[in-house]
Design goal:
This protein is α/β, with parallel strands linked by helices. It has helices spanning about 40-45, 45-55, 75-85, 95-110, 115-120, 185-205, 210-230, 235-255, 260-270, 280-295, 300-310, 320-330, 350-360, 375-385, and strands spanning about 10-15, 30-35, 60-65, 90-95, 135, 150-155, 160-165, 170-175. It binds fe (ii) ion (FE2).
Length: about 375
């Protein structure tokens, strides 16, 4: 047994904990607050609350509010310039994964020269510090509050790639489930399923380790129990709270184990179709993907499928139980009728999408429990498109 465990983020978790922002030592004197281009952070009053907390500590703030649901590199570069012009010394991401991931990428580019993409591609090494990052998630799904990953799309090349280094772990994350009651039903389902697959993939990855296994199985159990409740009633704070913790645990799974090629395939789908929500892409891929792994090498995944099925309340010793539990969960969260063709996808694109998934995020294929070829990926994607 060999593994490393590194989780440098301070997590403050609980209802009403946003107010801790006014009390805790913060890593600078002037913040850039990154939010998306939607209205919700203003209309729900979350932005004003964050600004007030900072004011109580004598900290100034500037807002960057252009981030798209699938964030693009241009906005990272623009916000980094704003940081330099305004002399900000730390970055706050407030919102869903797109706002927080953008905050991380802005923190990387604020002091470093060149284009963001050169660092993502490994063509250039960081020469200057990454600014400290504070994550305040208002959704439960990406796990970005407890992982170093930031996912940005290069709209010129249609590549949507995850990037992360030890410095892009947040300095502080405040996870306040009360901020999550406002998430609409459909998004709650998509985001919760994203967290679910972070844990499932991290449990199956060939780099899984004892601590990630504990977090993964617990978050699979919690999501199976509480996501249907959060979807049925968004104001159910207990369900929101359990989902927030499940998502944060799943983020830690992504940090100390890893996602596998299901995420590479999904990033290819949503790089070409930016309107496709990440969680929707994952759900559509999931049954074909996990059935394929089982068919390809039953022995390699059998035990772990059974463990996950048990975490989802199934008893028995057949790995197929995990596929049935997954289908039931998808039904229970109202995503049973999801079709990729609604987003314009066609079966004959499968080969290109599979190729893109290897080019942009090929690394995750090396962590799969069962090695998949381009041909295999094409089959999975083709099965998922209908
Ligand atoms: Fe994800």
């Amino acid at each position: 047994m060999h593994f490393e465990y590194y989780m440098p983020t301070r997590l403050i978790f609980g209802r009403g904990k946003l107010e801790e922002l006014a009390k805790r030592p913060l890593p600078g004197k002037k913040a850039l607050i990154v939010i998306t281009n939607g209205r919700s952070m203003r209309s729900l009053g979350y932005l004003a609350r964050v600004e007030n907390c900072l004011k109580k500590q004598g900290i100034e703030a500037v807002v960057f509010d252009k981030v798209l649901p699938n964030p693009v590199e241009e906005h990272v570069m623009e916000a980094a310039e704003l940081v330099r012009n305004e002399n900000c010394d730390f970055i706050i991401g407030l919102g869903g994964g797109s706002a927080i991931d953008s905050a991380k990428s802005v923190a990387v580019m604020a002091r470093n020269p060149g284009s963001y993409w050169e660092y993502v591609k490994g063509e250039r090494q960081l020469s200057e510090n990454v600014l400290p990052i504070i994550a305040i998630p208002t959704t439960a799904g990406t796990g970005t509050e407890s992982d170093p990953w930031t996912v940005i799309t290069n709209s010129e090349t249609n590549e949507k790639v995850g990037f992360g280094i030890p410095e892009t772990f947040p300095f502080l994350s405040i996870i306040d489930p009360e901020l999550m009651v406002s998430v609409p039903t459909r998004l709650t389902a998509y985001q919760g399923m994203d967290a679910f697959f972070h844990s499932v993939e991290g449990y199956l990855a060939n780099v899984a380790q004892p601590v990630s296994d504990l977090y993964a199985l617990d978050s699979i159990r919690l999501i199976n129990e509480y996501l249907p409740q959060a979807v049925a009633d968004g104001n159910n704070l207990q369900a929101r709270e359990q989902m927030a913790w499940a998502s944060t645990q799943a983020g830690m799974v992504e940090s100390i184990s890893s996602c596998i090629s299901e995420h590479s395939m999904e990033h290819a789908l949503s790089a070409f179709y930016p309107e496709l929500p990440h969680g929707a892409g994952l759900v559509a891929l999931s049954v074909p993907y996990y059935s394929y792994l089982l068919k390809k090498d039953r022995k390699k995944v059998k035990e772990r499928y059974i463990d996950m099925a048990r975490a989802m309340g199934k008893s028995g010793d057949k790995p197929e139980l995990f596929i049935s539990a997954l289908k039931e969960l998808i039904e229970k969260v109202g995503l049973g009728g999801l079709r990729l063709s609604e987003w314009g996808k066609k079966k004959d694109e499968a080969e290109n999408l599979a190729a893109n998934s290897f080019e942009a995020m090929g690394f995750l294929y090396s962590l799969d429990p069962v090695p998949l070829s381009r041909q295999d990926a094409t089959c999975v994607i083709r099965d998922a498109i209908y």
